[in-house]
């Protein structure tokens, strides 16, 4: 397929950024907003409040999200992880058999413990689930700054074709068939980014930040290996690359939330860092899944304990710093 007609479901920062990318790549793009009122406002103003000062490409057509959008050649679901099932189900029978439906969220569904492509398979059995992930901030992508990501699809040939259709000079999707590896990297790094933010907010220094990222990656790698991810995926863009980015910049909502917690600020669930930080939803699910496989994840456990009130930041840090000395492996 040529993948000429692309629908992006979700008109938040990431959805608008991806719509801009697809338009620059020469695709015909429909951006599906949540309501007719949202669509009318975006179509009129051509600027998202999530990306102030960055215009939506004039070639992007903004419409209200509608099942008919499923009739496009490929669908990008740019909605939060916990809303992805509802967005997929809303496309319903309009999806043609074999249409790639690409999850652009980084998380694991609460309750079911399912990864994003599994949610797509449940909701749209005839679609071809895919995942797009990697070190990328919406503002950078929307502005056309150089970005490399990973696109995973079970069919390697179709993955390559789709990557070429979505890519451009400044947005470069590397393709793989390791769907699970890409999903694990994106989900786990959000939890670890909260920990990295806590280190910065607490003023523990650059050495501690480097140690946190390194030992956090060891946890991500152990978890990925237990769930069948390939090592080269975990050490690639969607694993180590995304971890480094989100553990080092306040543009990351997860990192920003961690900084707030590290400074001792009470978590306000009305603030954007709390509402949109995927790691807050992923942390408890991640440690449940790790426990089932016997995977040790002390940093992720500490984050989960802080988020659900089982431990203070001080107590969690003390627990980590008093763990037994051991060989590095």
Give an account of the 3D structure:
- By secondary structure, the protein is of the alpha/beta class.
- It is built from 15 helices and 8 strands.
- It has helices at 13-24, 36-45, 84-91, 116-123, 138-143, 156-166, 179-201, 206-226, 231-234, 237-246, 253-262, 272-276, 279-293, 298-307, 313-321; strands at residues 5-9, 28-33, 61-64, 74-77, 100-103, 128-133, 147-153, 171-176.
- Strands 3-2-1-4-5-6-7-8 form an 8-stranded mixed beta sheet, with helices on both faces.
- Helix 4 (116-123) links the parallel strand 5 and strand 6 (128-133).
- Helix 7 (179-201) runs antiparallel to helix 8, helix 7 (179-201) packs parallel to helix 10 (237-246) and helix 7 packs across helix 13 (279-293).
- The longest helix is centred in the middle third of the chain and has 23 residues, at 179-201.
- The chain is globular, with a radius of gyration of 19 Å.
- It starts with a strand and ends in an 8-residue tail after the last helix.
- The model has no long low-confidence stretch (mean pLDDT 94).
Coarse structural class? alpha/beta
- Main sheet summary: 8 strands, mixed
Low-pLDDT ranges: none
The ordered H/E elements are EHEHEEHEHEHEHEHHHHHHHHH
Total number of beta strands: 8
């Amino acid at each position: 397929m040529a993948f000429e007609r692309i629908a992006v479901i979700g008109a938040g920062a990431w959805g608008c950024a991806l719509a801009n990318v697809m338009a620059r790549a020469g695709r015909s793009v429909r951006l599906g907003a949540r309501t007719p009122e949202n669509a009318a406002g975006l179509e009129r103003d051509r600027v998202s409040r999530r990306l102030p000062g960055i215009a939506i490409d004039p070639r992007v057509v903004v419409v209200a999200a509608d099942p008919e959008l499923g009739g496009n050649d490929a669908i990008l679901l740019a909605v939060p992880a916990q809303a992805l099932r509802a967005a997929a189900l809303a496309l319903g029978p309009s999806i043609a058999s074999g249409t790639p439906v690409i999850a652009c969220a980084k998380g694991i569904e609460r309750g079911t413990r399912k990864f994003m492509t599994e949610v797509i398979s449940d909701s749209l059995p005839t679609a071809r689930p895919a995942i797009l992930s990697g070190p990328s901030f919406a503002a950078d992508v929307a502005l056309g700054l150089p970005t490399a990501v990973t696109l995973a699809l079970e069919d390697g040939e179709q993955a390559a074709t789709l990557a070429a259709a979505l890519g451009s000079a400044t947005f470069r999707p590397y393709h793989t068939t390791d769907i699970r590896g890409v999903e694990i990297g994106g989900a786990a790094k959000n939890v670890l980014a909260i920990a990295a933010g806590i280190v910065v907010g607490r003023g523990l220094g650059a050495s501690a930040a480097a140690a946190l990222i390194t030992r956090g990656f060891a946890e991500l790698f152990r978890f990925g290996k237990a769930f069948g991810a390939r090592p080269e995926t975990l050490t690639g863009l969607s694993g180590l690359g995304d971890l480094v980015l989100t553990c080092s910049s306040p543009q990351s909502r997860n990192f920003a939330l961690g900084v707030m917690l590290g400074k001792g600020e009470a978590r306000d669930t009305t603030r954007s860092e709390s509402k949109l930080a995927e790691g807050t939803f992923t942390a408890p699910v991640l440690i449940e899944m790790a426990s089932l496989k016997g995977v040790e994840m002390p940093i992720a456990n500490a984050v989960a304990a802080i988020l659900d009130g089982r431990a203070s930041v001080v107590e969690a840090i003390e627990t980590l710093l008093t763990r037994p000395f051991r060989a590095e492996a």
